[in-house]
Amino acid sequence: MSETKMTLPGLLFKGLDNHPEGLFSSTKRDGTWHETDVKSFREKVRNFAMGLYDLGVRPGNKVSIHSENSTEWLVCDLAVLSLGAANVPIYTTQPGNQIKYILENSDSIVHIVSNDEMFAETKPLIKSIKTVKAVISIRESSHKKLKRFEDILERGKKVNEENPDLFDSLRNDVEPDQVATLIYTSGTTGMPKGVMLTHNNIASNVLASLERLPFDMSEFHGQRLLSYLPLSHVFERMIDYMYIRMGCRIYFIENIEEIRDDFLYVEPFFLATVPRLLEKIHTGVKVRGQEMSGLQKNIYYWAIYLTESYDPEHPPTGLAAVKHRIADKLVYSKIRDLFGGNLRGMVSGGAALSPEVFRFGNAIGLIVVQGYGLTETSPVISVQTPKDMRVGSSGKPLRDVEVKIADDGEILTRGPNVMKGYYKDEEKTNEVITSDGWFKTGDIGELDEDGNLFITDRKKSMFKLSTGKYVAPNHVEGEISGSGFIDQIVVIGYQRKFCSALIVPSYDNVKKRLKRDGYDPDEPYSKDPKVRELIQKEVDKHNQNLSPWETVKKFVLLEEPLTIDSGELTPTMKVKRPVVLEKYKEEIESMYEEE
């Protein structure tokens, strides 16, 4: 089958054919790494696929996966795809009522969970879900009705022995335009929508993205890669498909809180991430200098401040280059060691990367690029390369992907990566895909003269002040969250005279700074006047980089962070603005009492 239009099994098994012998992946569980070699991985995919076939899974059926990242997740995924069935991934953080909705709406006939804990919320609901005929547990389970992963492998092994050609026959019958996955978008309002992505949607995106790697593809062969973003999200899933195609060794971490130790153990070559992690790293690096003193501290902050003017498109020359080399030897090289010492680059997606963090990442000796896309576009629309490193840009569109800007500023895109539609929802599909194939992204942006795409904001999140001025809150939030003392911020101002904000300070950093100055803040920290004074200075400093009508005039400090569990964030860490506005209605009104 040609690489211009292909299936995911065709793409991935070709990668496995070229994979180096030995380790394929490693999954961390209870602090221990569990390794799987490439030969064993292939056997498990074949046997699990035939085990599912024995359970009655046929082409066109849906199989859901509710699990954290693991080698087994990939085994289940590739097995389902090889049967011509569709994978329905479910976020580990998804509440029970949404899981029930997804299983019913998708018509899933088999539901796969990782363990009893993951199954807990679904268990009381599963009897009422008529379509699900079997539930499989990846790990040992105390529930008698749950089928064991190992037992499905054994069933499949017997089917393979009785009919050794069946797996290859089914795999070869899969068509590029068949639905490969139903991904239910987390959404900031209402129940999620099932995005239908075909084999070719994702395969074309993998192949086109491989052309945009910051290094030669051969350099990735055999390298160790760390995977921490959820495979339930199409970004990490597509990235892992790229890793398989290139013959990389994938390490699935257990807990994001342990990622620093995991970096040192894995020593990854490359990382796919979201801005949130990079922002935390950037903040941590800046605060780290507070523990130093004298000349060491002066040198450290001299090097850190040097990153703020770094332009990846025009690296320093002359005296500036000499300064940068000195800073690299004394400071930047030590920061890189925190990532295991082997990290060469990162790609950031999911949200806009602030200019400050973008400059920082590239200044310390990593190639940090950012891309742009949505679940509905499989996901990548555009991505930077080392030759196109415009600050604030998401790079140029991928091969065969078209982008244009509508009259109202909305980004429209068309190409082989655009979804087939929303499952069982023709009305919503027609709302976002025009008759000539253009997908309405819902984002506002612009293209520069060289074709680089710049994202301004979400179309729905933009608001108009009562003064008539339009504000893009993501832009304002991105600017102010560049402060090492601000963890989260939500900007408000619809039909108001000025912008205000709900702010969650980075209390650990705030406490360190205040204690260094001889002051020990009192709980609740959000009410401490010195804490507020420090945050006010940070807001004032960053307001200088904004237009007058964008500046945050008032703010309220929140004691607790916005979280997924509280319903204030989506599984991809986007703010559910309607939820936050309703929850903190009184705090918001207090900022506009005089108005």
From TrEMBL:
Listed InterPro entries: AMP-binding_CS, AMP-dep_synth/lig_dom, ANL_N_sf
Keyword Translocase: no
Pfam families named in the record: AMP-binding, AMP-binding_C_3
PROSITE patterns: AMP_BINDING (PS00455)
GO molecular function (one): ATP binding
Coiled-coil residue spans: none
Keyword Phosphoprotein part of the UniProt annotation: no
GO cellular component, one term: membrane
Source superkingdom: Bacteria
Keywords: ATP-binding, Ligase, Nucleotide-binding
The AMP-dependent synthetase/ligase domain, residue ranges: 39-423
PANTHER family: AMP-BINDING DOMAIN-CONTAINING PROTEIN-RELATED, LONG-CHAIN-FATTY-ACID--COA LIGASE
Designated name of the protein: Long-chain fatty acid--CoA ligase
